[in-house]
């Protein structure tokens, strides 16, 4: 037992001497620094490995999305081909309405095409771009789609526009648009309802929009304390025009709210 104890004491002294030698020479600190750097490198490696796996999954997902987009685009293109007659009919109507407003010298069409992310529907009327023309593009397109839907029994028998649609529109075009709506409503058995400032309606009348016999009673007004519409009072006089096509002739109406 004494021999073993003597041996352990000798080994302990040798261990202490070696550690002192390492410490005095800086090797122990260098070893600790290398171990710390190794831990950091291992952590960075784990992070990079995780990011690489995420990137691989994202790349695979993007490839799947690309394939799915291509498939959807093909389906849309196939559907458009099957509905080519409706697209042609829409373009014929749109061109007719645009010609009624601006004449035959302006190009007018509706571009309907399949994109990789959506269906593109772009109605266009040629000429200098302006707010008024853009509004009339909407008017012609809405009227054309209303007619198509009505003919196919896939939509209501009326079309409603707010007064903002005629903001910035030339008075002549405004009058022509109202006359066109009246004509189309009569042909297709539709109703066209539009709200507008009463002074704008007066301007349209001066350019040939007939309203005789088309005013519906009663007239609503906020000129008195008990006036207004559903308890609300307007700061500006408004007019509501409704051009109505019915089975009996002469049933089109214009409702004006003063």
Please outline the helices and strands.
Blueprint: H1 2-25, H2 27-82, H3 84-102, E1 108-114, E2 119-125, H4 131-151, E3 158-161, H5 171-188, E4 191-197, H6 198-206, E5 238-244
Parallel strand pairs: 3-4
Antiparallel strand pairs: 1-2, 4-5
Helix pairs in contact: 3-4, 3-5, 4-5, 5-6
Description:
The structure is a single chain. This protein is elongated. The chain has a domain of 165 residues: 3-Layer(aba) Sandwich (Rossmann fold). Helices cover 57% and strands 12% of the residues. It has six helices and five strands; from the N terminus they run αααββαβαβαβ. The strands form two sheets. It has a three-stranded mixed sheet. Strands 1-2 form a two-stranded antiparallel sheet. β1 and β2 form a beta hairpin. The chain has 258 residues and is an alpha+beta fold.
% residues in beta strands = 5-15%
Q: Helicity level, as a percent range?
A: 55-70%
Q: What sequence of helices (H) and strands (E) makes up the elements?
A: HHHEEHEHEHE
Global mean pLDDT: 78
**Which overall shape is indicated by the principal axes computed on the Cα atoms?**
elongated
CATH architecture verdict of the domain at 80-244: 3-Layer(aba) Sandwich
Question: What is the CATH C-level name of the domain at 80-244?
Answer: Alpha Beta
Task: Assign the CATH superfamily of the domain at 80-244.
Answer: P-loop containing nucleotide triphosphate hydrolases
């Amino acid at each position: 037992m004494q021999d073993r104890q003597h041996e352990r004491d000798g080994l302990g002294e040798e261990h202490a001497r070696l550690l002192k030698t390492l410490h005095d020479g800086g090797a122990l600190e260098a070893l600790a620094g290398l171990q710390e750097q190794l831990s950091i490198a291992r952590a960075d490696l784990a992070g990079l490995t995780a990011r690489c796996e995420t990137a691989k999954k994202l790349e695979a997902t993007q490839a799947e999305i690309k394939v799915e987009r291509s498939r959807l685009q093909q389906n849309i293109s196939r559907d458009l081909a099957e509905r080519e007659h409706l697209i042609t009919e829409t373009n014929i109507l749109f061109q007719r309405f645009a010609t009624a407003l601006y004449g035959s010298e302006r190009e007018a069409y509706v571009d309907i095409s399949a994109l990789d992310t959506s269906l593109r529907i772009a109605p266009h009327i040629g000429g200098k771009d302006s707010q008024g023309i853009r509004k009339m593009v909407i008017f012609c397109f809405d009227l054309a789609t209303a007619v198509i839907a009505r003919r196919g029994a896939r939509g209501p028998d009326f079309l409603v526009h707010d007064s903002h649609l005629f903001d910035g529109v030339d008075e002549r075009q405004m009058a022509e648009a109202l006359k066109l709506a009246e004509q189309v409503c009569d042909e297709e058995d539709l109703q066209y309802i539009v709200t507008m400032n009463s002074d704008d309606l007066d301007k349209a009348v001066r350019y040939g929009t007939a309203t005789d016999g088309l005013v519906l009673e009663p007239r609503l007004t906020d000129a008195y304390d008990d006036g207004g519409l559903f308890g609300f009072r307007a700061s500006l006089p408004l007019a509501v025009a409704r051009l109505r096509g019915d089975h009996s002739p002469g049933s089109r109406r214009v409702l004006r709210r003063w």
